[in-house]
């Protein structure tokens, strides 16, 4: 029965620069048949970046604009790693990538269109935020928040929308710059942790 559980959660691929995986863990997954791609020669991209590229290239026959990726464990820990993972969202704005931790989720809202965010109130909220990173927003407008924005300017060193609250089940966001959307995750007794054999 235990072996079946290992196969149930067996990754198809382990890819990265292999500097943070224990050899016994790597051998364990190799023995289960997991493909390992060592890219230690590439120090210009993060492990998340390498994995996103692998997923995008393996779906070349599909429409990548409809691709959605959930990355767990991408938040928390060292700030430079978090910043690198946030940078990945900006590198692939045509792919919906959600970074998930025990406490929140983060995704990029590209400026290219109006966004409708449907809130699952049993799982997420009420705390949320909209954060412009890289480029200030001259005007951002929202609906469905406790403190909605109306053609509001946001920038680092000025106003950013943190500690806002979800008021409606549907949030709309329009902005002239890319924004990070973040919302808190409710504790359900489950947690995302690094479970190694």
Automatic annotation (TrEMBL):
* UniProt-recorded Gene Ontology molecular function terms: ATP binding; kinase activity; thiamine binding; thiamine diphosphokinase activity
Q: What protein name is recorded for this chain?
A: thiamine diphosphokinase
Q: What does this protein do?
A: Catalyzes the phosphorylation of thiamine to thiamine pyrophosphate (TPP). TPP is an active cofactor for enzymes involved in glycolysis and energy production. Plant leaves require high levels of TPP for photosynthesis and carbohydrate metabolism.
Report keywords, A-Z: ATP-binding, Kinase, Nucleotide-binding, Transferase
Its principal location? cytoplasm
Query: Mind telling me which SMART domains this protein's record contains?
Result: TPK_B1_binding (SM00983)
**Top EC class of this enzyme:** transferase
Q: Which Gene3D superfamilies match?
A: Thiamin pyrophosphokinase, catalytic domain, Thiamin pyrophosphokinase, thiamin-binding domain
Keyword Nucleotide-binding in record: yes
**GO aspect biological process, one term:** thiamine diphosphate biosynthetic process
Where does it live in the cell?
Cytoplasm, Cytosol
